Each structure stands twice: as structure tokens, then as C-alpha cells.
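In this supplementary section we document a worked example of the pipeline. Step one takes a protein sequence of length 275 as its only input; no multiple sequence alignment statistics are reported here. Step two produces a three-dimensional model, which step three serialises into C-alpha cells for compact storage. The input and output of this example are shown verbatim.
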Amino acid sequence: MFNYGFFDYKGKLRAEGFDSDMFSLPHLIFIALVAVLTFVISYLLRNTKHRKIDVFLKIFSIWMVFHEVSKICWESYYDFTVGSGKFNLQILPLYTCSLFIYTLLAAAWGKGKLRQYALAFITTVGLLYGGVGVVYCNGLNFYPFWTFGAFYSLFFHSSMFAVGVFLLMTRYYELEWKDIFRSFVPIVLLALIAVPVNYYLNINKIEGSDFMLLYSGGGVPIYEGLAEKLGEKGLRFIYTLIMLATHLALSAAVIAIYKLIRRIFRKKAEAPAES
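The serialised model returned by step three reads:
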């Protein structure tokens, strides 16, 4: 055991012997609670009027901005006081999960195609990445479960997952096959910023980064190996394109599952009652 404060930063925790809380008992309980509560609450609220959901999205989109800003300020404080003494570029919100903040704002306050692209991302790749982020919460490799760092990551990814499920179960947004490409638009727009930043920082060895996992596939063994092999041959850009295209397949998988579930429930509803 070791002592730590709720707002302690990862450098201090690592120095004091913290290893990982991934799949610890609290984490496993949290995963189960998120899964159960998300589907139960979404089911109970499935008939919520869409105008009420509009209000919820507006309020929650503002909260998520505050949530992200508070995390950036918290990390920056430690970086300047006990860390490198300068702003850590790796905390910039240029990750695929960061898109949840931007698309939530667009879904809540935008109109037309902008809003449709945002909702398509939230209910496909956003939903999937949120669920993966709850189960495989990388933040727990740096922070104990009962700390701000862990809570930030768990809350963020839980929100991604829960909001996506809620919007689908209330039929606020109904997925179509076209949403494979609609959901890809926000990803490409963020990649236009993330890719040049990744390549510039890594090539000039200013500060290693892997925004959107588009440079080295950090944390994903298959992608890491592919990026390394292609990088050795001067073809890292091919890995970047492959990683980007992966999002199309992920979106298609979510839509296929959604349509399969809808079809099953529709058949059950249409089946004649037994006499």
C-alpha cells in the first residue's frame, strides 16, 4: 500500500510505487454498473420527448467542455510546478475520443449536415470508443481508481458510451448505412490537424505524440507492429491511412449490430400472440 491524495499527479504516484488499477475490483464493479445502468436507464427513458433531449444535450455539451478544461488546467499546473516546467503538448484534445466534445457541441447547437455528421459519430465510433474506454481504461495505468485522474477518464468514456446508447434507444437518431461515411467526416477533419502535428513533433523529436493513434498506434500491439514496420521502410503514411480507414469498418460494425437488434425486436413485435 502507498499513500496518495485525490489530486496527485502520475509522476508522484509512479515514484511511490503505483503500478496499475486496470481490472481491479473497483474497476470491474464500475464496468458492470456502467453497462447495466446505461441500458436500464435508456430503456426506461426510451419515450422521452426529443425536445427534452435537445435541452439535455445543450447542458451536457457545456459540462463536457468544462470537464476537459479542468483536466487540462490540472495537468498543466503539475507540469509547470513539478514537471518539465512547460506546457505538455500531449494533453491537447486532439485524440479520437476528444471528438466527443466537439461533436456533442455540434449536435446540441448545430443544424443541418453539421448536426447530422456529429450525431452519426456519437452513435457509432463515439459509442464504441466510449465502451472500449470504460473496459480498457488506460488512465488506470497511471492513476489509482480513487483519484481525479482516473475519475476523469472513466467519466469521460462512460459519457461517450451512455450518450450514444441513449440517443439510439430513444430513437433521437436512427442509424443508416450512410452514417458510415457521415461519422467519418469529423474523424477526417480532426485528422487534418492531428496528422501534421504528429509527424512534426516525432520527426523533429520535440515531443513524441500519437494523436488519434495515427503515428505509431501506441497501446495497440497490432497497430504498433504495423506502424513500426512501415516506418522502417519510410512508408509510415500508409499506416496512417490504414488506421484512418479502420474507423469506417468500426462504424459499419456498430450500424450492423444496431440494425440486427432493431430487426429482432421488430419481428418479435410483429409476431402473432399465442392463443
